[in-house]
Amino acid sequence: MENILEQIGIDNYIYLSTLLFCVGAFGVLYRRNAIVMFMSIEIMLNAVNLLLVAFSTYHQDAAGQVFVFFSMAVAAAEVAVGLAILVAVYRNIKNIDIDNLKKLKG
Amino acid sequence: MNTLIAIAGLGIICLIAEIFNLRKVIVPITIIGLLAVLGLHYTDYSVLGLETTAEQTKGLYNSMMVNNGYSKAFTSLFILLTIFLIALTPHFQREHKSKLSDFVAIKLFLLTGAIAMVSFGNLAMFFLGIEVLSIALYVLAASNPKDTNSNEAGMKYFLMGAFASGILLFGITLVYGATGSFNCDAIYTAVRGGEVPSWFFIGIVMLSIGLLFKIAAAPFHFWAPDVYQGSPALSTATMSTLAKVAAMAAFFKLMHDLNYKVPGTYTTIIMTAAILSMTIGNIMALKQDSVKRMLAFSGISHAGFMLMVFFNPPAMSGVLFYYAAAYALAGIAAFAVLLYVAEDKKGESIYNFNGLGKTNPMMAAILTCALLSMAGIPIFSGFFAKFFLFTEVLKTGQVAIVIVAVINSIISVGYYFKLILAMYNKEATTETSKVPAMYSIVAIIAILLNIAMGLYPDFVLGLLK
C-alpha cells in the first residue's frame, strides 16, 4: 500500500488543521454560551492534535504522536478546571451566558 | 531535577497532612521544606561551579530537562517567591482553615510548573510547565467561589488562557513540522543548518503570541486588569510576581534556545509590543482608583520593559534576571502591605490608603520603598535594573526605544506618587487594627532583599555569568 500521506500531501493537512483551528477560534470569539466556548477551545486543541499526528507521519517520528497524549491530558485537566469555575458562576448568577460577567471594568 | 521532584513531593505531603489532621504544621513544614530544597539546589549549584561547562549542562532524562546557570538562578528566585507567598497564606485564609492545605499545595504545584518552564530542553516539557502553571492559576483566580468578582476573574482568565494555550500549541506543532523534533538543540541545529519551511516562522510568531498573552504584554493585555482586580488579593500577588516572572523567563529561554539569529522583522514585532506595553500600561495606570488594578497596569508596563531584553539575547540573561528579581521582590513587599490594608479597610481603593503614614508608619515606609523601587529611584534595585537594561540596549544601537522607555519611567512616577501622597498627605478616616505578624515579616524581608540587591548588584549579575 502506498503512503496515503504522500498522495494527499502535507500541505493539505496543514490547510485542514488551520481551517479547523480557525473554526474553533471564531467559536470562542462569537459564541456567548460558556459551554459552546469550551467546545470551541476543544476544537482548537484537536485541530492541533490532528496536525501533530500528520507531521509525525510525515517525519516518520513517534515524538509527535506522544505529544498528542500530553496535549489531550492537559486539555482534559484544563476543561475540568473550567467546568468547575462554570459551576461556581452558575450557582451565583443562575446563568452561563458570558455577557453577564462584566462587572469588572475601569 | 531533584529540585522539581522534591517540590512536587512536598505538595503531595501537604495534601496528605490534611488527611492526618496535621493542619497546624502544614505551613511551617512547607516553608522549612522549601528552604531545604533551596539549600539542596544551591549545593548542586556550588558543586557544579559557577562556570558550567558543556558536560555539566547536558540534559537530564533524554534532555527533557537542562540545568544551566540560567535555570538555576531563576529556580532559586521562584522558590524564594513561593516561600513568601506561602508565608502569607495562613492569615489570608484564616476564615477557610479547611482549605489551607489546598492553597499551599496548589502554590507548590504552580512552582513545579514555573521550574519546568525555565529548565526545559524539549518543547514537550515547556508546554507541560506552562500548562501546570496556568491551570494552578485558574484555580487560584477563582478560589473565592461565593464572590462573583472572583468567578468573573477566573472565567475570564480561563477562557483567555486556554485560547492562548491553543495558539501556543499550534506554534509548537508548526515548529515541530518544520524541523522534525521537539528537542531545542535539534531545532537550533536544524534552523542553523539550512532552509526551513516558512511554517517555522509562523510557528515562532504563534509561540510569541501565546507567550505575550501569558506575560500580559500589549496588545494581548486585556485580560490582566480585570483578572487582577477580581481575584483574591493573594492570588493577584502570585500572578503579578511569580507567574509573570516565570512566563517572561520562559519566553526569553525559548527564543534564546531556538534562534539567536531572529530575522530582522521579529525585532520589529518585539519592539512594537514593548513600546505599546510600556505606554498603554503607564497611561492607563494613571487614572485607576483600585490599587490592584493600578498594579496590574504597572505590571503590563514592566512586561514592556522586560521585553527589551530581546534585542541582544546572548548578553541579556543576567540583566533579565536582575530586573525580574527586583520587580518581583518589590511586588511581594507591596502586596504584603496591600493585603493588610485591604483586610483592615475592606477595600483596596487609593483612598483606603489615606493616612497610613501616620497610623502605621512602618507599613507605609515599606510600601513607599516598594513603589520607589518599581518607579526606578536610586538605591533601590529597580533603579539599577533599569540602568543595566538601558545600558545593554544602548550597546545594540536601539536608541529610540531607550528614549521611549525613559519617558515611560517618568510617567510611571506619576501614579506611584499618587499612592505615596495619599499615604502621607491625607488624614486617616477610620481606626486601624494591628498588622498581622507574618505580613510585616514578609514585607520587611522582601524589601530588605530588594535594597540589598541594589547595594550589591554584582553578586546577582554574577549568578548567571
Overall description:
Chain A: Pfam families: Oxidored_q2. The complex is a heterodimer of chains A (106) and B (465). Helix content of chain A is 78%, strand content 0%. Chain A has helices at 4-8, 10-30, 34-59, 63-93. Chain B folds into two domains: 1-261, no CATH class; 275-465, no CATH class. Helix content of chain B is 77%, strand content 1%. Chain B is globular and about 70 Å long. With 465 residues, chain B is an all-alpha fold.
Outline the fold blueprint.
The complex is a heterodimer of chains A (106) and B (465).
Chain A lengths: L3 H5 L1 H21 L3 H26 L3 H31 L13
Helix pairs in contact in A: 2-3, 3-4
Chain B lengths: L1 H18 L3 H26 L10 E2 L4 E2 L2 H24 L7 H19 L4 H19 L6 H32 L4 H10 L5 H16 L8 H8 L2 H26 L5 H23 L4 H17 L5 H33 L10 H4 L1 H15 L5 H15 L3 H27 L11 H19 L1 H6 L3
Antiparallel strand pairs in B: 1-2
Helix pairs in contact in B: 1-2, 1-4, 2-3, 3-4, 3-10, 3-13, 3-18, 4-5, 4-10, 5-6, 5-10, 6-8, 6-9, 8-10, 9-10, 9-12, 10-12, 10-13, 11-12, 11-17, 12-13, 12-17, 13-15, 13-16, 13-18, 15-17, 15-18, 16-18
Main location (chain B): membrane
Protein name (chain B): NADH-quinone oxidoreductase subunit N
Subunit structure (chain B): NDH-1 is composed of 14 different subunits. Subunits NuoA, H, J, K, L, M, N constitute the membrane sector of the complex.
Taking pLDDT < 50 over at least 5 consecutive residues as the criterion, the unreliable ranges of chain A are none
Q: Which value, in Å, is the CA radius of gyration of chain A?
A: 18 Å
| CATH level-two architecture of chain A | Orthogonal Bundle
N-end to C-end Cα span of chain B: 21 Å
Count of alpha and pi helical runs of chain A: 4
The biggest sheet of chain A amounts to:
none
| CATH level 1 class label of chain A | Mainly Alpha
Low-confidence stretches of chain B: none
**Total number of β-strand segments of chain A?**
0
What pair of chains forms the biggest interface? A-B, 45 and 44 residues
Largest sheet entry of chain B = 2 strands, antiparallel
Looking at the structure, the CATH topology of chain A is Helix Hairpins
Count of domains of chain A? 1
Query: How many individual domains of chain B?
Result: 2
Distance between the termini of chain A: 63 Å
